[in-house]
Amino acid sequence: MGVLIASRNLTCLSDSIDNYPEGIIIPVDKPYRWTSADVIRKIKWAACRHFDKKNLKVGHAGTLDPLATGVLLVCIGKATKLAEGLQKHDKEYIAGVSFGATTASYDLEKEIDRMYPTDGVSEESLRDVIPSFIGEQEQIAPLFSAKSVDGVRAYEIARRKYMEAQQGGDDFDHTEAESLSRQMINIHEMELLGFWPEGKETEKEDVSQLDGRSLRFNVTDNSSLHLPHAEIRVACSKGTYIRALARDLGEALGSGAHLDSLRRTKTGGFCVEDALSPEQAFRLLVPDQGNPIGKSE
Fold this sequence. Notes:
- By secondary structure, this protein is an alpha+beta fold.
- It is 21% helix and 28% strand.
- It is built from six helices and 14 strands.
- It has helices spanning 36-50, 83-87, 123-129, 154-168, 242-252, 278-285, and strands spanning 4-5, 24-30, 58-60, 69-76, 91-99, 101-103, 112-115, 135-140, 148-149, 152-153, 182-196, 229-236, 257-267, 270-271.
- The strands form three sheets. Strands 1, 2, 3, 4, 5, 8, 11, 12, 13 and 14 form a ten-stranded mixed β-sheet that branches. Strands 6-7 form a two-stranded antiparallel ribbon. Strands 9-10 form a two-stranded antiparallel sheet.
- Helix 1 (36-50) runs parallel beside helix 6 (278-285).
- It is elongated and about 60 Å long.
- 37% of the residues are buried.
């Protein structure tokens, strides 16, 4: 028997992990504001209970930022050995990009720190510049990333510098990103799906429905600024930072830009249409558990 791939049609699992000698892979559609570690923590608790194990190897194949959604591959048991190989596969994203402003994190986790003119931003100019981003190229990772710099996570350095700038009343220095080594990436396909010159209306988030864990992350609401907004499909290699791509798109159009949404639609050969919600994944392991997502484990 090979690795078991969990699907929406799977209704139950054997109660012995030994019946899955190559392990289990559960493609999960990670919710907004959840960390990848949140998903692993929930599923590991359920898996240890289901298989009656005090400890069980559970990991993921490629992290997603808290403000991103989409396919996260959860590996259980021996399947954790496949995680590194799965991460090397190409990925596909649907990215929402706002032009005319930058944030320190290049997404909505930080407030806008600088405004830019948008005279050169249009559907036509975007279509003209997108082909120049296709192919192999060097990319500088955003400072707010998990990339390691001399053994320290880049986001730890960035958050310290961000706090220092705020306390000193100074602007955050984006050029600090130059301290990160460049890496080669490959963008295979890039397609403009839509453009809204006055911004795209989105449904307001009901924060009253969020638990304390989800509220750990600040989400800036810039909708009142009506910044030009684009939705772009990106098929790319491992290691591509879409937040950095948003930054570079803004610069290419003589403006600034930041990511306002991100959804991973494909990774490791899995599509988001085939992914399970956290509730479905949890109930596959603990079918009799009430309120699975609110369970404290």
